[in-house]
Amino acid sequence: MAPHTNLHADTSLDLALALIAASTVPVLLLDGHLTVIAASESFCRTFEILAVSVPNRRLVELGAGEWAIPQFNALLKATASGYAEVGDYEIDLVRKGREKRRLVLNARKLEYGKANDVRLLVTIADVTDARVAEKLKDDMLKDKSVLLQELHHRVANSLQIIASLLLQSARKVQSDETRTHLVDAHQRVMSVAALQQHLTTSSTTDVELRPYFTALCESIGASMIRDHNQLSLDVSVDDSTTAADVSVSLGLIVTELVINALKHAFPGDRPGAIKVDYRSHGPNWTLSVTDNGVGMPADAASAKPGLGTSIVQALTAQLHAHVTVANASPGTSVSVVHTQIAAVRAATADRAL
Length: 353
Description:
It is a single chain. The protein has 353 residues and is α+β, with helices and mostly antiparallel strands. The protein is built from 9 helices and 12 strands. The strands form 3 sheets. It has a 5-stranded antiparallel β-sheet, sandwiched between helices. Strands 7-9-10-12-11 form a 5-stranded mixed β-sheet. Strands 6-8 form a two-stranded antiparallel ribbon. Helix 4 (128-172) runs antiparallel to helix 5 (176-200), helix 5 packs antiparallel against helix 6 (209-224) and helix 5 packs antiparallel against helix 7. The relative contact order is 0.06.
């Protein structure tokens, strides 16, 4: 029986060595003294080491001694003793006259029934090119971010110039109706400029809505509220953040609803308050603008929608949300509500079209 057992063990060893040699990734099999028992052809080819010179040589002696990396060898010895395990350990392989390579190494002690014969399996991945590609991608994203911020800044400046020209034109025209339209256009352009200006100083990915809505409403209030002691505009927002493109749509909705309340809820310099509120719970959120003004007119249902109403409805549909208008007793409350279920249904319907 003994000869048969030895033959089986020899066959298993030969098979293991053959598998290591044929591995398509760089692999080393070491003993407890960090002497190479076997190396894959991929290891020898990748690191330009003669295959016949590898077996029975210590790791630190391979090549021109570039594998004599103190910290890595110390970790391998600790792994052989059972005190550590090398996982995704990164090193720089420095070879004279060759490009430095960034390597990721993994090593583990093999358990195969012979406690006195320590074996370490070491796998090596060259991630140099991948890291270069990652850096190029990061640099490109950084450049894109800078260009996008510059674009936001220039657009905001251009909008402010347009708003100034509209206001100058409004002061010169004789027609009251034309003057009203120009003032409305000025106010909308200024609000969009405020949106762009805020995005200039915000992240290009997610935008915090509390400071965003606060800055927006401060801009609207500064241009449209003459007496802040008589008419207040307050913002109450939770800690929600959202994507930059969604924040623009939300900001435009807030702008239209607040402007509408300022124009119609407080006739004859009536005092009052407007509150902008935003709350979210997971994918569900509600944006509301509420005033304590005169409330909705009796013929509101039959009235033709104005430009502001059309803008709000279009933006709300784009966000897969819906608008509700309610009597606030006193005043009016307009809410834009987004629910995940409704959004999924809307997106499915869009794809069906």
